[in-house]
Structure formats: C-alpha cells, structure tokens
Amino acid sequence: MTYSFLNISCLMAGPGIASNLAAGAAAAEEGITLEPTTEKNVMTIGADGIGQHSLVADDSCKVTVRLLKTSPLNAILMAAFDAQSISSALWGINTFTLSDSARGDFSVIQQAAYKKRPTLTYAKEGGMMEWEFDGIQVNSILGGGL
Question: pTM surpassing 0.90?
Fold first, then answer.
C-alpha cells in the first residue's frame, strides 16, 4: 500500500470562501489535522470500586490546516475570516469535506468557525501558516484502500 498527499482533497465552503486547501494549495509538510476536542468516554468509579462508563454525545473536532507562507490561499482564508467576523449570522457556518481518494477515507466537518487569526511569523525562512477551526460535528469513514 502507498500513501500520497496528492490524493488528499480538503474543500472548505462558507461565507466568502469555496477553496481546496490540500493538494495543489501549497500545503506545508505537516498538512491537515482533524483532532477530537473531547474524549468519547468518561469512566466513573464509585467508592466501592464498582464503575460505569458514560458515552459522551460530543462529535466536535479541531481542524488545523497548514499552508506554506507563500500559498495564495492564505490571503483567501484571511479575507474569509474578515468577512465572517462582520456578523454572527456569517460566523460558524463553514463546512469542510476532506477525502483521500486512494484510501477511501472521507470526513465532513459541519458548523466550523475560525478559532483565531493565524500567528504571523517573519523569519529567515518562510515557514508555514496554521489555520485553526472548531467544528461542531465531524463524521468520518476510514476506507480500506484500493
């Protein structure tokens, strides 16, 4: 089996933006990360040693998109951030659709909002810009590959 970032697509759609943020977008080596924001289980042990599990009804996640400093998508993401910041009616309604065409992986993140403006670094090397988003709900399927 072989993996390649060239097979990754990450479409972000929302007010002021409809762009692919993966292969072809000058993504940094670190790429894109989907990270759950909470644990799915809470284990509680009573005073007598008997325990219980609680299934947490939280499917939220943090999405981190890393682009090279020189990627033209940085300007598009900043313009969308500025546009969405104007009104709460425009905030938190982005959708991400992320897929790996070779592996069959597919994730949809709904009701996503920017966490903050990205940190701007001007250094010896261009480096990257990290864009962080909070998503209210993520649904993922991991494929078995070809």
Answer: yes
